[in-house]
Backbone:
């Protein structure tokens, strides 16, 4: 597998870029693997990569019903931050943040991680108290964060209406300078290339249609292209988790909802950070290409149609225009939806299941892109060792019976 | 965009007037004091999440403010039936009866 | 006779009452529309608003005896006579609107008729007000503000619905062919006043205080 470098770029330029290698193979599945991962989104691919690179398990297959990274990984608005309230989740997201910071080098693939900072706006005194509390909690956990007042927000984002004339005036914000965005496709492709190089089989266009369970233990999966044996199975299928759990005969505390986003026509650079608002419910950033990326809320009803409802978009755009009157004439180019797997406490599930050898990594809901590296690493450890990684322990399904929920509705309040 | 028939207003109104309120026909454990942690957990947090027909509770929030039930397909988004609280879905009952009579399964869309 | 205590909620003596629009009118006085106004907006302040809850069986007779109005049982309809109206809000809920100052006497009379049955009467006069819209473009202004179908075919005279309006809610009613009525919450009055001014600007909007 060739390494990417400036010299490589020059070399290929001489042959008119016609001799680049395929980034990964298209292998025929083997009879059996040590670990089968269902779902080739960012989390599934990262899991495979870390299994092979860090934990020495290379006899691994990733089975994807569509194409790699075509699920929520392809549909998200790419915000990466780690300023969550509770110790358990802060530890998990900060673990991820540290991996983001070296990811392009680690993968030899530019994931375009851009630490341009994220603002979470406060519009009421209640918001501001929550922000104070969250930033204090973050700092105690060694996570960068500051509380800004409206004037300081205005200095960072001069085009935002921070006056007192709006329906919900901006009173301040939390500011995480290390947060930012990354290029979603590159993350999936970088992990795929890295995993493939280490011998992982990436099997696309193959749907898992059933689980082969013998005496309460997983022994393989049924797929649209035949059966594949497995000693362990990790299921990482986001919005489809309930359906796969159904194949194993148990229920998950998850409901699948459409979440939509939209992008505008490309504009000259005008917004160099990420702005989110729980209260008016909208968030926005600008890509390197110039498009404004805008995220809306989830539809309140369950749904598997990858589209969202019109009133939800309308509501979000009203919020964006109120914050940024300057964008009122910008045209939107495209709109789409993904199916997010929401849990009652807005925290993920990284857990063993009633079936021996079958593990689930799901429930990331509206905010799992930022966790891709950390989730992959922690889940890979879990699969390699057959028990929960210490960072994953609090996120088992059991918490819905013991009552130790980790309520992150505040930090995850706006769907992102 | 849904256009939903409210069984109390007895007419169709736009989605914006309604709120979805989750799975319908949930039963609280009959003896809460005696329910185990498992029963409570299941009752509070574990919901059906089907790819297909789903029975849901909605409320006509901006209209008559009554709760009612909807039978809806979560993939095609077709609403097959709305019916008042305290009643059961007649469409589902008819489907079950049809299956018992040995009739072939009809596509969900053919029912409404 | 019912055992429920009813008291006079209207202050006696010279306490000045202010309409929910008092502040809005001062801050945004409405210039007379240039030329022919497309929309004429008029508040009907200080009316008596009572919410009646119960089954039709319990309420029907007593309500008719006291108000002279028949309880409408067709959803989304209302019955009116002169300056009184009675609107269906839900299968067990009606809105009774009467001339100003009749809260106390009406509630007493109703309780006298209805006795100790299972019902509720709540005086909401202070919490909401009626805004009347007329003129050739009244319907257009409303259409900009709600997703509810206002075409005369689906919204005939005598219909009234509670629905979404701008970023809040309102009751929209059509007492006769010329007029539309909005029943709106006091706390949203200023917002809706300004909303209507801006929505009506293109047609020319003016107020007419009675
Ligand atoms: C509009 C939108 C905006 C978002 N914005 C953000 C954001 O700004 N920041 C953030 O952190 N998060 C965000 N998220 C959430 C984030 O996208 C997800 O949490 C994350 O990408 C999930 O990754 P995943 O790999 O688990 O799932 P996915 O990328 O969805 O991958 C799951 C894969 O499993 C496959 N699959 C499913 N069933 C089967 C089967 N039976 N057999 C084989 N394969 C199967 C699917 O085809 C899919 O490719 C957003 C989500 C959406 C929809
Ligand atoms: Zn209704």
Residues:
């Amino acid at each position: 597998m060739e390494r990417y470098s400036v010299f490589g770029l020059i070399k290929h330029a001489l042959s008119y870029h016609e001799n680049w290698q395929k980034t990964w193979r298209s292998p025929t599945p083997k009879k059996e693997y040590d670990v089968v991962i269902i779902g080739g989104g960012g989390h599934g691919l990262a899991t495979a990569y870390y299994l092979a690179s860090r934990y020495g398990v290379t006899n691994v297959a990733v089975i994807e019903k569509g194409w790699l990274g075509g699920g929520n990984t392809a549909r998200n608005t790419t915000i990466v931050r780690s300023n969550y309230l509770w110790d358990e989740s802060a530890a998990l997201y900060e673990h991820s943040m540290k991996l983001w910071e070296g990811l392009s080098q680690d993968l030899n693939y530019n994931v375009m991680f851009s630490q341009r900072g994220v603002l979470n706006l406060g519009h009421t005194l209640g918001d501001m108290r929550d922000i104070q509390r969250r930033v204090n909690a973050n700092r105690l956990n060694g996570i960068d964060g500051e509380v800004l007042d409206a004037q300081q927000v205005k200095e960072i984002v001069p085009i935002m209406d921070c006056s007192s004339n709006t329906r919900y005036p901006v009173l301040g914000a939390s500011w995480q300078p290390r947060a930012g965005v990354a290029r979603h496709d590159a993350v999936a492709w970088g992990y795929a290339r890295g995993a493939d190089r280490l011998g992982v089989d990436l099997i696309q266009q193959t749907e898992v249609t059933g689980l082969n369970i013998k005496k309460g233990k997983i022994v393989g999966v049924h797929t649209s292209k035949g059966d594949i044996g497995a000693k362990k199975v990790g299921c990482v299928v986001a919005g489809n988790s309930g359906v796969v759990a159904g194949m194993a005969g148990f229920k998950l505390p998850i409901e699948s909802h459409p979440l939509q986003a939209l992008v505008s026509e490309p504009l000259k650079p005008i917004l160099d950070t990420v702005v989110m608002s729980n209260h008016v419910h909208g968030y926005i950033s600008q890509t390197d290409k110039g498009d404004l990326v805008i995220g809306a809320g989830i539809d309140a009803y369950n749904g598997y149609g990858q589209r969202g409802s019109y009133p939800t978009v309308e509501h979000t755009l009203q919020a964006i225009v109120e914050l940024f009157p300057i964008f009122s004439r910008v045209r939107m180019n495209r709109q789409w939806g993904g199916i997010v797997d929401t849990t009652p406490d807005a925290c993920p599930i990284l857990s063993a299941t009633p079936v021996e050898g079958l593990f689930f990594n799901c429930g990331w809901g509206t905010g799992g892109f930022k966790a891709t590296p950390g989730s992959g690493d922690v889940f890979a450890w879990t699969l390699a060792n057959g028990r929960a990684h210490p960072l994953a322990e609090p996120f088992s399904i059991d918490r819905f019976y013991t009552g130790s929920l980790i309520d992150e509705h505040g930090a995850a309040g706006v769907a992102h | 965009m849904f256009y939903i028939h409210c069984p109390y207003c007895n007419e169709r109104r736009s989605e914006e007037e309604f709120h979805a309120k989750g799975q319908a026909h949930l039963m609280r454990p009959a003896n809460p004091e005696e329910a185990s942690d498992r029963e409570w957990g299941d009752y509070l947090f574990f919901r059906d999440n089907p790819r297909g027909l789903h029975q849901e509770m909605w409320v006509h929030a901006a209209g008559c403010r009554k709760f009612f039930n909807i039978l809806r397909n979560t993939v095609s988004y077709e609403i097959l039936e709305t019916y008042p609280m305290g009643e059961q879905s007649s469409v589902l009952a008819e489907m079950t009866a049809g299956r018992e009579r040995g009739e072939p399964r009809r596509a969900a869309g053919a029912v409404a | 006779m019912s055992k429920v205590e009813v008291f006079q909620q209207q202050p006696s003596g010279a306490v000045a009452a202010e309409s929910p629009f008092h502040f809005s009118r001062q801050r945004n006085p409405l210039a007379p529309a240039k030329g022919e106004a497309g929309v004429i907006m008029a508040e009907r302040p200080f009316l008596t608003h009572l919410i009646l809850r119960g089954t039709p069986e319990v309420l029907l007779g007593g309500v008719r005896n006291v108000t002279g109005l028949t309880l409408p049982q067709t959803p989304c309809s209302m019955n009116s006579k002169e300056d009184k109206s009675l609107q269906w809000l839900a299968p067990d809920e009606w809105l009774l609107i009467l001339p100003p100052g009749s809260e106390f006497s009406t509630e007493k009379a109703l309780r006298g008729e209805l006795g100790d049955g299972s019902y509720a009467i709540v005086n909401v006069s202070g919490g909401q007000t009626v805004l009347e819209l007329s003129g050739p473009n009244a319907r257009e202004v409303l259409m900009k503000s709600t997703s509810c179908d206002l075409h005369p075919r689906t919204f005939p005279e005598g219909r009234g619905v509670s629905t979404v309006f701008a970023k809040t809610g309102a009751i929209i009613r059509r007492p006769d062919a010329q007029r539309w009525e909005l029943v709106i919450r006091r706390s949203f009055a200023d917002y809706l006043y300004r909303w209507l001014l801006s929505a009506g600007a293109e047609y020319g909007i003016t107020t007419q205080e009675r």
